[in-house]
């Protein structure tokens, strides 16, 4: 009797659920996908259930792809998803694979092993998204498609990340996914991904239970004959605990021993059962002889790709002897030939009958020998052409021994992992290389490489690595400068802004005048420019202005200083024409210089966002939008779909908001927030997306929705150290006013006022607290409100854009009555009509129409408000018209 049949006893409920899911899948190409999670302890029949699902699905002409995790293979990135997609990939010619994967071919292709990595290190989130997109396209081709993933608790983290993302998008893809796992077994990120996968199913997990005594009796009689008596059957259940795998193995032992299934023989069952697992299994293996044992050990070390040839090489035996051992182990039900239906390309010739056996064999290898065999396996795998990355899982198991060559192999493996978007795997290799340890002249470089690998995933760890690297010899010249820059980035991401600034400042002081010093100074000014805790603003701005005055833009360091100077002048509220002139000097024929592109890592995205925003707030929206759009295109084509793409979408939204295209702004900002959620809450990019989205919802008049987003995002103090545009304090103050919490709103805006004054941020558009605070204080403290409006108008006139002056006049008009209010409102309309900011123009028209009691102006404002998607403004204009305010 086969194990599969045993494992299907008392599985009617699970099989019924699968059949129902297959009915839905096969009925209509447009049906929603579904996911079933099967949980069960080892030996309860998960694999057999998946085999039955395959059989049923293939009877219905479904395409079935399957894969499984391996206990010793969890450190191999993308291992399980590669196995899963092998049937589809091997059937495609390279040009067909490129066609099906489309733009994702160069991004996801290296992770799948179907194309060589590019020169630029891919974004892990982009690789994940590329795999999701690629599988979705292949799934549409191969409908109806069933994906079976066994032993998911042993899947590599990269596969689980992909599967969690794929499961979230099953609503619009007709595919059935069945995932089998043991409860527990994993922790950390892998556990989080498995929980997300289970949640995506939308239904409880199918928890497999042990066989009941009746089912065990039925299985026993079906295997040994109807004459098996009740006491014997009961003892089978008592000995195995109803575990299907152990039951089948025990009954096979009974058959082999020709034991009569009667009460008198029941006492021998426990001894037989011990020989089927654990120490008994090892003893049974030893009975087959030293060569067969050595072969089994080598197979357990390899874990997958268990071909007779590779095992023979690892076990140091000739091919004929290896074939003999393989046959012995198959006869003993330790190894088996893989099922042709589920075997994958290049998977090898053999596999263990059950993961429990593989685990027992692996654990039976003496520790010292196991370590030595992993070292040999690394060499065998490398010489077979599978590369350093595949060999690295064996190198990770080797004891440290001052091996210079091993350090270099691990460094090479780390580079291969990074090239396919697996920084966690690279981190493991480099951390192991440090234990060897590296030679003194190499040690700092390994730490530096490790810091680069963990920059975005573990900033606190990165800080330790890079600080250690910088404290020892080995990093010089440009490499050292780059390490300092990356250290400052890690400090920034870890919310240690002041230390980031001081680190770069101290390193700059060590260098003589020249390109390296200028780069470090530029980085220092960049971090100071976005550090909300920096209080030495006037002196800093003057030093930056003096430095930029000497720059002609002849190299990238000078261009960076000009960009920083332009942004600093913007937030200080200096003349807009001068801001634009400085920014223009930082460009080459109106474009970013080579080496300063959106995916160039020497400077970072923050700098280019500053440049684009300088144009956006100086009413040069065409140029700003060209940069924002270029960022999105560049990141999407490069597969960077993490924090970089989130910021790009947030600023696309900011551009739409400045234009007055509020519907489009909301869509872009919701996408930015979705991407930011995946990277992590609390980061500046998350605040950026949330702040701008809430601002747009308020402009649209969707106050309740804005409040809900704020509550969902934790949009409240404490605020992040880096500067965020839009200023969260100003936006939260406006939100509090909108929901009727007037005093709380005033308090928040006054905090924004204090923070801006400490930093010397005097541009009323960039840090927009003044206009809202003046309006809020109009009745409570009219004198102060008037002074705030006067100061804001003076600063707006100094800045000099139509938008800034128009907004200041709108604010002044709101504080006046009678003809003075009408005149100021008319002036606001004149300025804002000339600006590119259509929402502000619409608001000014409506306010002027109300003040002047003009039907014409109200209707013009109403039309503009509708085109902007400003529903609240539309309602305000309609109410004014319906009330009879417009009479002239």
TrEMBL record:
It comes from the Bacteria. Gene3D superfamilies: P-loop containing nucleotide triphosphate hydrolases, Tetratricopeptide repeat domain. Keywords: ATP-binding, Nucleotide-binding. Pfam families: AAA_16, TPR_8. SUPFAM superfamilies: P-loop containing nucleoside triphosphate hydrolases (SSF52540), TPR-like (SSF48452). PANTHER family: TESTICULAR SOLUBLE ADENYLYL CYCLASE (PTHR16305), TRANSCRIPTIONAL ACTIVATOR DOMAIN (PTHR16305:SF35). This is AAA family ATPase. Residues 10-178 form the Orc1-like AAA ATPase domain. InterPro entries: AAA_16 (IPR041664), P-loop_NTPase (IPR027417), TPR-like_helical_dom_sf (IPR011990), TPR_rpt (IPR019734).
